[in-house]
Design a protein that fits this description.
By secondary structure, the chain is of the alpha+beta class. Strand 7, helix 6 and strand 8 form a beta-alpha-beta unit. It folds into 2 domains: 168 residues, Creatinase/prolidase N-terminal domain (Creatine Amidinohydrolase, Chain A, domain 1, 3-Layer(aba) Sandwich); 292 residues, Creatine Amidinohydrolase. The strands form 7 sheets. Strands 6-5-4-1-7-8 form a 6-stranded mixed beta sheet, sandwiched between helices. It has a 3-stranded antiparallel beta sheet with strand order 9-12-13. A 3-stranded antiparallel beta sheet has the order 10-11-14. The longest helix has 30 residues. It is globular and about 80 Å long. The model has no long low-confidence stretch (mean pLDDT 97). 35% of the residues lie in helices and 18% in strands. Bound molecules: glycine and manganese (II) ion (2 copies).
């Protein structure tokens, strides 16, 4: 692999930006992800570490980056090895790496035990991602003890270790143009995949064929791979009927029946960047009245959340907007009763809605589907307000939520999940509905990058007739 000059520059700029935050004598150590055996000679599909990739764009396993405070970067990577390359594939190798990737020097990762202590000599602080790589602190201890053994030769041993995640999380939270371009492309592929799955579902049912969840999973995968996506960004959820009320359900073998709703939560990963879309649609292409009532409520709550998503707003504003609409709607539809649950403010304060809506309205999205980045505004983190949670009875220290800025990307994904129960109108039993879009924060509001698959129920019905 050889990066284009533009990408080499981009990664070099990111490394320099990081280097400038390391302080005098700082050095950052960033390993990529390990590969995992599935069984015997088979491995799980390899996926690089996101922090590592963000800093160099290199996707081979068994690689390490070291970045000093003046921006000099050393890569340790797999050595060239004809026999291994015949079995496992091409390796860039340390000789070609500087020109291909724009790092200053590269060594074989097989020499890591000798190289690492030398690279850590005379540094003051070692930065690495805490609690992310199993066994890394122990390995670092071993390398530092080798440095210490050479103190009598006049070298200095680092005396501080600091967590690199905070610095990289802040950088990754605001996406640059290259990242936004990839995320828009990933979003478009995923949206097309949802349209395809909806249409196949209705067509097969009309033809009298059996449709199972895995049939629609196959349609999603077909569209992802046809357009160059390497993997799904997470395990696809294709949930027929009542299965939609299981939040982390996976596409399985249940039959999708005429008259049921189908919930699909699926998004592809494209060149390291995730997309994350949920649509809920009637299997046969026509909503029933009760399905439509609940769907319209979730959609109204999403519209309120979208309107609350803009630069300068807090991360929790869309959630609060969603909850207010859902709370009122649950009262209006009789899922909650005012003589039992009180006013809409009571429903919100006492969290009565939680029985039907038990997750947050969004999360950061980027290289990881639940991407990194603090949800608390850094400058205000000390300003906690304790409150008693009415459901758990625990005291929660609410700290001011993150202020949204242009280039941040969040999902907006309200839902309602109604299980069968005596105190719930039967027409709503076993309905699970979620509508999820990906939003780029802009100076004026937000850009929904996943709307190539519609959310409007009439538009969904129309495309399913096509
Ligand atoms: N697909 C995972 C999520 O929506 O958070
Ligand atoms: Mn999501
Ligand atoms: Mn999702």
């Amino acid at each position: 692999m050889t990066l284009t000059p533009a990408l080499r520059d981009l990664y070099a700029q990111r490394r320099l930006h990081l280097a400038q935050q390391l302080g005098p004598g700082g050095i950052a150590l960033v390993p990529t992800a390990p590969s995992y055996a599935r069984n015997r000679d088979s491995e799980f599909p390899y996926r690089h570490d996101s922090y590592f990739y963000y800093l160099c764009g290199f996707t081979e396993p068994d690689a390490w980056l070291l970045i000093t405070a003046d921006g000099e970067t050393t890569l340790l990577c797999q050595p060239k090895d004809l026999e291994r390359e015949i079995w496992d594939g091409y390796r860039l190798g340390p000789d070609a790496a500087p020109a291909a990737l724009g790092v200053q020097q590269a060594w074989s990762s097989q020499d890591i035990e000798q190289r690492l202590p030398r690279l850590l000599e005379n540094r003051h602080t070692v930065w690495y991602p805490f609690a992310t790589h199993q066994g890394l602190p122990q390995r670092l201890d071993g390398w530092l003890s080798k440095v210490r053994a050479r103190v009598r030769f006049g070298v200095q041993c680092p005396s501080q270790q600091r967590d690199l995640c905070g610095l990289l999380d802040e950088m990754r939270l605001v996406k640059d143009d290259h990242e936004l371009d990839l995320m828009r492309r990933a979003a478009r592929i995923s949206a097309d995949a949802h349209v395809r799955a909806m249409q196949v579902c209705a067509r097969r049912l009309r033809a009298g064929e059996t449709v199972r969840e895995f049939h629609l999973d196959a349609e999603l995968l077909h569209e992802f791979r046809t357009h160059g996506s390497q993997f799904p960004a997470y395990g696809s959820i294709v949930a027929a009927g009542a299965n939609a009320c299981v939040l982390h359900y996976r596409a399985d073998a249940a039959e999708i029946r005429d008259g049921e709703l189908v919930l699909i939560d699926a998004g592809c990963e494209l060149d390291g960047y995730a997309s994350d879309i949920t649509r809920t649609f009637p299997a046969n292409g026509r909503f029933t009245a009760a399905q439509r009532d609940l769907y319209d409520l979730v959609l109204a709550s999403q519209t309120a959340a979208v309107q609350a998503t803009r630069a300068g707003a807090r991360f929790t504003d869309p959630h609060d907007a969603t909850v207010r609409v859902l709370a009122q709607g649950l009262l209006d539809l009789g899922l909650l009763q005012s003589n039992v649950h009180g006013t809409v403010d009571d429903v919100i304060e006492q969290r009565h809605y939680f029985r039907f809506y038990m997750h947050r309205t969004g999360h950061w999205l980027g290289m990881d589907v639940h991407d990194c980045g603090s949800y608390v505004e850094p400058g205000e983190a000390a300003r906690g307000t304790p409150r008693r949670d009415p459901l758990s009875g625990e005291t929660i220290n609410d700290r001011p939520s993150r202020i949204l800025r242009p280039g941040m990307v969040t999902t907006i994904e309200p839902g309602l999940y109604v299980r069968a129960a005596d105190d719930v109108p039967q027409a709503f039993w076993n309905l699970g509905i979620r509508i999820e879009d990906d939003a780029v924060i802009t100076p004026q509001g937000c850009e929904l990058i996943t709307r190539d698959v519609p959310v409007d129920p009439v538009a969904i019905e129309a495309l399913m007739q096509a």
